[in-house]
Amino acid sequence: MIGIGSHGLSLGDPLVIAALAGAGVLLVLIVLLVMAVRASRRAARQGEPLARHMNMLAERVRILSEGQSQLSGGLQSVAQTQATAQTQMMALMEQRLAEVQQRLSESVHGSAVKTTRSLAELQERLATIDKAQANIEKLSGNVLSLQDILSNKQTRGAFGEIQLHDIVQKALPKDSYRMQVTLSNGKRADCLIDLPNPPGPIVIDSKFPLESYEALRRADSERAAAEAARAFRTAVRAHIRAIAERYVIEGETADGALMFLPSEAVYAELHANFPEVVRDGFEARVWIVSPTTCMATLNTMRAILKDARMREQAGAIRKTLRQLHRDVEMVVERVGKLNTHFNQARADLDGIGVAAERAGKRAARLDSFDFEELAPSGAGSQNPVPLGKSGD
Question: How far, in Å, are 372, 374, 385 from residue 380 at the CA level?
Fold first, then answer.
């Protein structure tokens, strides 16, 4: 028997047994509940990493899904871009192909135009060549005519005179030379240059024995060449003596003369192969000139003429300089007088300025002066006369 307070419980009592059994079951349930709670907590603690992994897996699945969506959109954008680029590429290729075709057409057209132009120019040049050929044929005829002219002594002399006149006309003033002048000995000079003394007027002869030179040029053997050279030397020396005797006159002409050769070839032949003949000319004071050297000699004569004319005009120049000096002195004198007048006028202006300044100062003092009543100076006046402002 179990006593609880004032009550006693009999273990044989069915109620007590039932109560004890219920309490035991309750206790077992509580214990089980506690064990279940602890097990659930332990399971929860053990499931947290799994949950985190699940969450991470879900997040990665979500990211993978988003990436797949982006990849799908990118693939679609790439497909669209590729389609657009392909379309643009096709359009560009068509445009470039059209441009190439146009350029090719223009190039072909330009080549055709250039070819046509070249053919036209070729035709023009062929026409020019034909014309030149005709001129050459004409010139050949003229050369033959020139040979005919030079073969005749008179016509050869006229040809030399014309050539000499053309050179002299280009080199000298018209009033400094004369053509075909008859000297005091009756000989006619082809050209006379009026140089001042010294040296005086000098004669230029244009006639030359060309037959001997032609024979020398046509010689086809050593013997013929030697004979032609001897004849050429003799002819030139004879011509030099003739010029010295005819055209060197004391007191009338210069002490020398010029022998004009109308051919540079003859001049070169003389200086190259016949230097002794040239020295003979120097000794006879007959100088041999060609068209080129004659022009140079005439230019030197032109300088001499200019210097002589300057000397002739020296007196007039000095006279003009004296007059100019006198005029300059008069100008200086008048400038001095004018400067004196300017100085006097400047002094007068300074005096006027000083006087005006003084008058201005006095006017300023009068303007600032206050007038008061003044006493009468006369004895006969009893009442003072006031001096005040106008209107008082």
Answer: 21, 15, 13
Alpha carbons 309 and 100: distance in angstroms, whole number: 79
Instruction: Give the other-Cβ count within 10 Å of 252's Cβ.
Output: 13
* 300 alpha carbon, distance to own chain's centre: 39
The beta strand positions in the chain, using DSSP E, are 2-4, 7-9, 177-182, 188-193, 202-205, 257-260, 286-289
User: In the numeric block, which tokens belong to residue 12?
Assistant: 């044989």
pLDDT at 41 over 60: yes
Determine how β-strand 188-193 pairs with β-strand 286-289.
unpaired
Residues in the chain: 392
Cα-based angle 202, 205, 210 (whole degrees, multiple of 5) = 155
The residues spanned by each domain of the chain are 141-319
Beta bridge mates, 181: 189
Identify whether the C-beta of residue 287 lies closer than 8 Å to the C-beta of residue 258.
yes
pTM of the model: 0.43
Which among 185, 173, 265 is positioned nearest to 217, based on CA atoms?
A: 265
pLDDT digit string (tens) for 244-259? 999 988 888 888 899 9
CB 262 within 8 A of CB 138: no
Nearest to 174 by CA among 352, 289, 319, 305: 305
